[in-house]
Specification:
about 90 residues; mainly alpha; Arc Repressor Mutant, subunit A; three-stranded mixed sheet; 4 helices; 3 strands; DNA-binding
Length: about 90
DNA sequence: CAAACTATTCAGC
DNA sequence: GCTGAATAGTTTG
């Protein structure tokens, strides 16, 4: 567990539901604007992949990067989150 | 401490 | 749109 990793986790966990951010964005928020490479590495080897919404972290252009469940599932999750968000906003 | 690896991003064609 | 190269931190020896 490295300090930078902690920041990254914090940032990733701070991503609102239905929102997707890029590795670059996370890295910037983590304090290392040019360390998106490391962000991916950390998330890949992160000690708790389950508590980390890695599916909200994507490469760019809505293209999901990698995930334990598989990139395909992750992509679906992105769309699902969008629906969830609508559901929450529309849960009148 | 150094080398290798990586879930990426940018630039060129 | 695809391929190649660069960057920055983690991990392992």
């Amino acid at each position: 567990m490295t300090p930078f990793a902690k920041k990254v986790y914090r940032v990733v966990l701070s991503i609102p539901l239905g929102q997707v951010r890029t590795y670059k964005w996370v890295a910037q928020k983590a304090g290392r604007p040019g360390a998106w490479r490391a962000v991916g590495t950390i998330l890949n080897k992160n000690p708790f992949p389950v508590i980390i919404p890695c599916h909200r972290v994507i490469k760019s252009n809505n293209i999901s990067g990698g995930y334990v469940f598989g990139k395909k599932r992750k992509k679906e999750l992105l769309g699902l989150e969008g629906r969830i968000k609508e559901c929450l906003a529309n849960r009148k």
